[in-house]
Design a protein that fits this description.
coiled coil, 7 helices, single chain, mainly alpha, rod-shaped
Length: about 375
Amino acid sequence: MAVALSSAPRQSLMVAGSIQVPVGSLQSLRAEAEQLHANVSDLGSKTAQVVASVAAEYTTLINTLRPMGEKAITRIIQLGDEIEKLAADQNSTQHDALIADCKAGSIALHNAFDDAYNSAKSALDAATKEATEIVYDESQTETDETRVKQIIALATVILASNKSNLQFQQDRVNTESQAEQTATNARNDAESKLKNAKNVRIVRDVFTLGLGEAGDWGSLNKEMSDAESALRTADNNLEQAQKDYAAAQSAVTSALADIAAITALLPDLQRLGAIFQTERAQLEQTRAKLNDFTNTCLDLANYFGSLDAQSAPLEYIHNAAGLASAVVSLQNTLGCNTKLSGPFLTAPSSLDGPLEQIAKSTVPAGPVTSLM
């Protein structure tokens, strides 16, 4: 009786390398880092679910096969008693009947362990597939962590450029402030001259009958106009420099915030990477148990099958002691209440000869009763 286990493929959620980031855009770099972090977090959550699912499937498999295991152990105990009788009764009329019974029991055990093997193999294949995907996802997580570190390095370079620009704009503000002060002083000087000249102009106009104003004697108006024009230019330059400085200062502040946000993701990415390692180790433990159980079922199925196939001793179980060891391993894995006892445990070497005799005998098997 095979146990159906889920083996549907899981889709990896990682999208590392798929985001095109404009060079120099801190906001885009931050968006990429946050997307990578979100992907890893989501995949980490799904990986934990998969690991738990594989463990649950393993538990289901063991619970499902436990009744079969207990029946099989009971049948193996009976087989040991029958083999002892066979060894003690080599010449009676019951000899062939004992061999036929032993072969029938072996076939039933072969069939039971073969079914158990097929169920375990299905679960093992699914677990192996998940383990392979988790290794891939873990490598993607490491790649994403590396990319975030690269983003931090690139963002630091951009920050340095922004700080350099901020210093340039600060120097520019200082220069324009000095120019504005110089223009202010020039305007004030021109204004003072103009004010003083107004009194002179009144006197001049009296004596020149207004011709002094028309000719702008002394170029006083032009000097005042030039001073005011220079001040307006200086004011405009200073205003623009102050705006550019504010923009540069804002860029530095924003860059610091972006870098802080990106850098804050790194410890969590490293934590998630460690979780992947833990999850993978847990899945590998389950897979290793499944692998051992699957191989034990296969070895037992092949051994009991060989008793009716007139075959040579097998590679992995080639005597009664090896058989007993495999059965004990299986009963421990399944948590069977029925424990192996009798000659397979107490005197396994005494069964090797009769087991070989059964395997080589041409006597056909008796009626087979299923253990499942």
